[in-house]
Design goal:
The chain is an alpha/beta fold. The chain has helices spanning about 15-35, 50-65, 75, 85-100, 115-125; strands at about 40, 70, 105-110, 130-135, 140. The protein has 5 helices and 5 strands. Helix 4 packs parallel to helix 5.
């Protein structure tokens, strides 16, 4: 939609033109500000499942508050897949890797890298996806 400098009668009318141009500019700026990158949340699941799920949820909240859309499939897949079944675990990791490829960054949380996390990190490195590391207090560090 364009803004016309002339009114309905064909006369030059700069006041509404300027006002409508400002509204259009503000709408475009707001739509650009609404962009939130998708980040893959890479954190432990097995072991202390209850504690690890809580930390992953907190990490997702942290990513959200930093202006991102967090994606943590290890919080979703165990709802309908068995992590103790080797075939289902392999399928879940395969699906994790597919979803990770859709993300702008990979965020790694914690002081321990699990077997599943190491698979995801290696794949992200091969794809040259940006990887950011965070300690258990959500402070960014060089590597874990």
């Amino acid at each position: 939609m364009s803004v016309n400098k002339f009114n309905a009668e064909g006369y030059y009318d700069p006041t509404p033109y300027e006002a409508l141009s400002n509204v259009t500019r503000e709408e475009k700026a707001a739509s650009k500000a609404a962009f939130r990158p998708l980040v893959y949340i890479c954190s432990p699941f097995s072991g202390d499942i209850e504690g690890n799920v809580k930390r992953a949820q907190d990490f997702c909240r942290f990513a959200l508050e930093k202006g991102n859309i967090p994606l943590a499939p290890h919080l979703m897949f165990p709802q309908f897949m068995d992590d103790n079944n080797e075939k289902e675990r392999d399928l879940a990791i395969f699906m994790d890797i597919i979803l990770m490829g859709k993300c702008q960054e990979v965020w790694v949380l914690g002081d321990v890298i699990s077997k599943g996390m190491s698979i995801e990190i290696e794949k992200a490195k091969k794809r040259r996806q940006p990887i950011r590391y965070f300690n258990k207090d959500f402070e960014e560090v060089d590597t874990l």
